[in-house]
Amino acid sequence: FPVTIPMGGGKTHDELALWHIAKKGREIQGLDRFVDNLEKIPACPIQVAAVDGRDIDPESGTYHSETGITTYTLWGEMAYQIGGIEGYQLLRGSDQSGISPGTSVLERLITDQPTLIILDEGARYLRAAKAKVIGQSTLSEQVVAFLFSLMDLAASCNNLVFVYSLASASDTFAQETTDLQELIRASARQERILSPSSSLS
Q: Which positions ≥6 away from 193 have C-beta within 8 Å?
C-alpha cells in the first residue's frame, strides 16, 4: 500500500498507528471507535519492521547496542527488526555486501507468519544511497531491486503487507519519488493507494 500525501500531511502518524495496531492488536483501548469490526484486527502481535529512511546511514550503518549488530542496508535492518539475530543472519551476507536479496530468502525470513513492513521516507534514503558504490552498481539501484522483490512477494502471498510513503513529486526528493512511482507502476500487482486525509478518515 503506497501512502501518498504532501510533506506534513500526516502519513507518518498513520504509519505509527499501523505499527501500534500490529503490536498490540485488539488490546488498544478505544480502537472500536475507528474500526468497524474488531475481529479483523489480529488478537496477537504480528511481525513488524518499521524503517525511517532518515535513520539509515548507508555508510556507517545502524548500530544495535543490545546485540552489537550493525545493519548497513534497508533489508538488513528489516530482517533484524523482524527476526532479531536469527533473522539478520539470513540476510547478513547481502546486508554486508550491499547486494539486494531475492524473494526466496525473504520468504524464509517471513515464513508463514502475518507480517507488516513499513517504510517511511524511502525517497530520502534513495538519495543518500546513490552515493555508495556497489561493484558496477550503486546502493540506490540495489534498493530499487530489493523493493521490486519485496513488492513482488507481497503481491504473491496473503500474509505480508508492505506499506510505504511517497511525498509529493514536487518535494525536495522529487527525482527519487518519481523513481519509486515508476517502480510501483512496473511491479505492483495488488496495490491500494491511500491518502491519509481522505482514505483513512
A: 1, 2, 3, 4, 199
- Residue 134, classed as helix, strand or coil, is strand
Output DSSP code: residue 72.
-
Single pTM value for the model? 0.77
Distance from the Cα of residue 78 to its chain's centroid: 7
What 8-state DSSP symbol labels residue 201?
Answer: -
Four-residue CA torsion sign, 106, 107, 113, 117? positive
- The grid coordinates listed for 125 are 534514503
Range list of H helices, the chain = 11-24, 74-97, 103-110, 122-129, 139-156, 174-187
The most confident of the ranges 19-23, 50-54, 63-67, 157-161 is: 63-67
Count of beta carbons in the 10 Å neighbourhood of residue 165 = 27
Task: Decide if 151 contacts 83 (C-beta within 8 A).
Answer: no
